[in-house]
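We store chain and fold; thus.
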Amino acid sequence: MPADMTFWAALLVGFFGGVHCIGMCGGIVGALTFGLPPEKRATPGQLLPYLLAYNLARISSYVIAGAIAGLIGAFGLSLIPMQHAQLYLLMVAGGFMVLMGLYVGGWWFGLTRIERVGSRLWRYIEPLGRRLMPVKTPKQALLLGFVWGWLPCGLVYSVLIWALSAGSATQGALLMLGFGLGTLPNLLLMGAFAAQLSALTRKKWVRWIAGGAVLGFGLYTIGSAIWNIQVS
């Protein structure tokens, strides 16, 4: 898949997977916004600097993780004397996206096991975030975003496996940037309209549409990899 298409594809996965992000990060965003003094959260416009700072840092953490994954993937692929190694890795990433779609749709929750593996590292990082709360300045929100960007998340892990197949640190970072920007609308709205958006994402039909979209893209990714293997 061309790099520009990969970016936009990752953005769409982030957007539809945002239903899951609201469940995972919504409490953090809520704590960030409702922890502010009333005069600083009276209107969405007053909340915006805090939400932008938090999400800018969160996405930056994704980009760093994507660069690391892309670098590891490029190094690993250089050691494997296999013509289709990158495409096989892309098939694995597509498989994880299928599992993520099932998770977002509420049909299967096996990915929570992967999140539990990540939680072992998270227990050492999470106290850093707690020290930054309650947030009183955009700078604190920025630092908090850097920390909470490493929160164990099956959706993020699925896209990171996709970044492994990107072929370079730059492409891995670009892929995760697209994914992070895709999650941005949902989490910005979560900060300003937390109660309404939380109620909406609890509706089965919303989760089914979002889960189906992520699942469908995973199947497309697998099919595309198989097609390229056959024709090459």
